[in-house]
Amino acid sequence: MALSPTSTADLDSRPDETTARRGLLPLLFVGNSAMYALYLGVGGVLLPLQVEHIDPAAKVANLGLIGGVAAIFATFFNPFAGALSDRSGRRNPWILGGGLAAVAVMALLGSVATVLLVAIAWCLGQAAMNFYQAALTSVVPDRVPQARRGAASAAVGLGLPVGSIIGVVTASAFSERYRTGYLVLGLLVAAAAVLFSSCAKEQRMPAKAPAPLREQAAAFLGVLREHDFRWAFIGRALLVLGYFAVVGYQLYILQDHIALPDGLSPAGAVAVLTPVSAVAMAISTVLGGVLSDRLDRRKLFVGISAGLSGLALLIPVFSPTWAGMLAFSAVNGLAFGCFMAVDTALVTMVLPKAEDAARDMGVLNIANAGPQILAPFVASAVVSLGGYTPLFLLGAALAVLGALAVRPISSIR
Hints:
CATH architecture: Up-down Bundle
CATH superfamily: MFS general substrate transporter like domains
CATH topology: Growth Hormone, Chain: A
Oligomer: single chain
Largest sheet: none
Number of helices: 16
CATH class: Mainly Alpha
Structural class: mainly alpha
Order of helices and strands: HHHHHHHHHHHHHHHH
Strand content: under 5%
Number of domains: 1
Distance between the termini: 12 Å
Radius of gyration: 20 Å
Helix content: over 70%
Number of strands: 0
Shape: globular
C-alpha cells in the first residue's frame, strides 16, 4: 500500500530513539499490566463468581448476556474515546482520567446484586477502561520509531502475561470477597495511570477542530476500507475471540467439565493455570518481538503463532483432563504471547494517518477489547447447545482463520 504524506511513515519524524530508551517502555509495560490485570481478573474470575452468586442455575446464560450487552457498548465507545484523545492532542490526561474513574466503577460493580445492574456497571467499567486503553495504545505510534516497534510491542505484550497473573491471583484471593477484589483491581489501574502520566513526558500535538458527527462516523468506517488495516483488524478479532471464548469460561470449564485433583478447587486451578500460561506467554512475547525486529518479518510470526494457538485449543478436545488443561495453557500461552507482541507492531505500521493514530488504534482496539467481552456471549450459546468440547473446536477454528487473515496484508513482510 502506498503511503500518503500523512501516513505512518511520518511517525518516525516525531519520536526519537532516546524516548524509547529512557523509561517509556517500562511505563508502557506497567500501564498495560494493570489494564490486563483488571480485564482478566474481572472477566475470568470476579464477574463469573458474581453472576453465579446471583443465580447459579442460569450462570452461563447470564454471563453471556452481560458480555453481549457490554460488547455492543464497547464496540461503539472505544473509537469514540480514541477520537477525543486525538482531538485534544493529548494522551496522558485521558490515561489518568480513565484510570481514576476505574476505581469508582469497580466499586460500583462490586456493590450491585442483579443481572441488570451488573450489566450496566460493567458497561460503565468499559467506558472508563476504553478512555485509558485508547490513549495508552496510541503512545507506541506517537512516540516510538518504527525500528523500535517490535521492542515496544514486546513491552506492551508482556503486560498480558504479567497482568493476567496479577489479576487472576488477586481475584482468586478475593473469591469469597469479590467486592474487595473489584476495588483492588481498580486501584491498581489508578496507580498505574498516575505513574504513567507523571513520568512519561509528552509533547502536546496540535489539537484537532471538532468534526460533524456524520463525518466522524464516516471516518471510523473509512479506516476499515484501508486494505491492510482491514485484514489486520479481521485477524486480530478472530484470534482474540477464539482465545477469550475459552479463557473467559475457564472457571466454568474447570467446575463442570474437567475432573480436578482432590483438594484443588476450580478457583485454585485457575490460579495454577494462569501462571503456567503467563510464563510461556512472557517468553514468547520477548522472543517474538525481538526476533521480528531483527528479521524484519511480522506476518510470518503472526501467522505461525495464530496457527499454533489453534492447535493448542485442540489439546483439551483429545485430553479433557487436568494434565490436558496444563498442556493447553502452556502451548496456548506461547502462541498468544508471540501473536500479541508481533501483531501490535504490525498494526502500528499499517495505520493510515499519523494524526489519527488514537482514533484508528481505537478502531483496532475494537478487535482486541470487543471480542474479550463478546466472547462470553458466544461461548454461552455454544455451551448451551453442545457443551464445552464444541467451544474448544470453535476457538481452534477462529485461531486458524486469524492466521490466514494476515496473508493478504501487502505493505508489511
